[in-house]
Amino acid sequence: MTFGAGISLSDGRLTVFGNCVLHDVHENVVITPTSGPGDAMINGAFIGVKSDHKGSRRVFPIGRLRVLDLIGRELRFMCVFRHNFWWMTQWMGTCGKDIPFETQFLVVEVCDETHIEDGDKAEAQHNSAVYAVFLPILEGDPDVDQFKGSHLVFVAAGSDPYDVITNSVKTVEKHLQTFSHREKKKIPDILNWFGWCTWDAFYTNVSAEGLKQGLESLEKGGTPPKFVIIDDGWQMVGMDPTGIEYRSDCTANFANRLILIKENQNFQKNGKGHRVDDPAMGLGYVISEMKDRYALKYVYVWHAITGYWGGVKPGITEMEHYEPKLVYPVSSPGVQSNDYSDVLQSITINGVGFVKPEKAFEFYNDLHSYLASAGIDGVKVDVQSILETLGAGHGGRVKLTRKYHQALEASISSNFHDNAIIACMSHNTDTLYSAKSTAVMRASDDFFPRDQASHTIHIASVAYNTVFIGEFIQPDWDILHPMAEYHGAARAVGGCAIYVSDKPGQHDFNLLKKLVLPDGSVLRAKYPGRPTRDCLFSDPVRDGKSLLKIWNLNDFTGVIGVFNCQGAGWCEVTRKMVNHDELPGTITSIIRASDVEYLFQVAEDGWIGDSILYSHLGGEVTYLPRNEFMSITLKPREYEVFTIVPVMALSSGSKFAPIGLTKMFNSGGAIKGLKYETENPVATVIMKVRGCGPFGAYSSTKPQRITVDSEEVEFEYEGKSGLVTFALKVPEEEQYLWNIVIEL
């Protein structure tokens, strides 16, 4: 039985383009084609299982992952799985037993054996790929007896891994009709500006006075934040008399419950004493004063999807109309087999004050309308995966999650502009496949500044998680911390928000000025940053030999961040992130222009493949002819960022490639317009550019003249490298575009 041109199931073998991926496929496994014309994925199908068994949880073998291909090479896979209740990370392997519990996305590299018949083993090394996306079809309700399993796994095939992943998710989108692909969503404007989050600065001791200190400190340093996230600590919360207090490190008391939707006394005008229910002294006053004084564009606040960690407090007048009920989470065996999470254990012991699902919109609408009236522009909604533990009696975890997210997104739409929500602690497919409009989500576990194992694994986790979740949302790569330059470089290629959580007065302004322009805007790349194709199946945290390369695109250039992340990762034995190599080694790898997928899309017509590579730390220009490469060597925890620019060969005989603002991590993100005009013997390059500081470009010939806004400027030219540099002043207008003309 064959589906499309790629997927086939016969004689117990699941094949893609004639190459076996699974063997010993069980007889009760069934394949269902996608619904027909108009589907995004032609070479794809759903895997299901026929069964007469009853019960709310069933485990079915599908088949065995093939180990060796015809030329004796191991198949390789990369998956992302929930290493704890809230978050995913990556895992690589070569056989089925290596696939962890709670895997939610799997991609297998299959050697294309169809060429071997012709004796061309070299050609056989060009791999096609197969992708499987796991769907949360089982509802997770103990009361559910009947099993419907025709669409449990979606599998698709193709030669371009990124295209196949994108089209797979779009096909699943059409099948479920419960979520939207990222490309259809409104991306909040905060991603285009620098921000500050209060969490590490104050934890739950945040106050209006602390906010002022943080904003003033950053503004004085020349990197004014344009958005603020007021994290946990602003709400009115309390613990039950019989509750068991639990705090992890410096974090919140997870036994607390929400007792009022309004702010606590720390966010009132005097910021001291007892709370006074006077709008003139409340949150609205504080927010208005901050926005006026510090020219803030956006202020977001934190809340849990259940109100607070312990939910909403039952039995009190202020909350009774939401009909909260004390319930106790029940997590799945798969989650328990990995890391159960101290936070989840605390919530399980104390229970959750759970708002009746039919009252969820009323609860969110009351909360958000109050916040909006006080000048709040959006919310960060945390603890989202907790819903999967509360599905009993509500039609199961998937149905409950969907109902809550429909209510949440409806309230966001009603009360805030700009799709102003950040999702957090939400790495289950229940949430991903319920996200109709939510467009931003934290991409990885928290970055713990005092945990050495956290420094390198965080970058790897967000990059590989983004391969999957980047199809649903724009990943948020979290705040910057110690080793901040290493992490700042990653944020620059991640296409994500740029924000810090420093204590007031403890900022690295030299670093921030590589990320943030004086007007508070950032040079954000266009897409979610993902590992380069040659990194998809290598293990840059454990194998001792691989660097991690992350690619992205700007309007006219590409960018690659390269990182030595070896030394720490998730441990199968301890079920924790650990340092497994205290002295990881120096590693050498290669960089190609083709590492940037779809670079041709931003090149001029007629581009023949030659490119310029500009290294941020080295400050060097390298001319790479098509299909050539350069080497890079990094010590442990070192990085480099390369701007990759297609070279334009002009009819005048000159070659040109604009690099951008050379002091910024993402240099090419500054270029917002580019065109070429030729009137022999003179060629003219016309650009629109944001920002200030040194601007660089490659030119095979020395320019005759350069003007900025029609004024001629001085420039330097290095004949050996072809590097042209000149200075751009700090513009007076926000997001101003300089008009630059270079005559060659």
UniProtKB/TrEMBL annotation:
Provide this UniProt record's keywords sorted from A to Z.
Carbohydrate metabolism, Glycosyltransferase, Transferase
What does the record give as the reaction this protein catalyses? Answer: alpha-D-galactosyl-(1->3)-1D-myo-inositol + sucrose = raffinose + myo-inositol
Q: Which InterPro entries match?
A: Aldolase_TIM, GH, Glycosyl_hydrolases_36
- The broad enzyme category this protein falls into is transferase
Instruction: Supply the EC number(s).
Output: 2.4.1.82
Question: One Pfam family, short name please?
Answer: Raffinose_syn
Q: Which family does the similarity line name?
A: Belongs to the glycosyl hydrolases 36 family.
What is the protein's name according to its record?
galactinol--sucrose galactosyltransferase
The species this protein belongs to is Gossypium darwinii (Darwin's cotton)
Q: What is the lineage of its organism?
A: Eukaryota, Viridiplantae, Streptophyta, Embryophyta, Tracheophyta
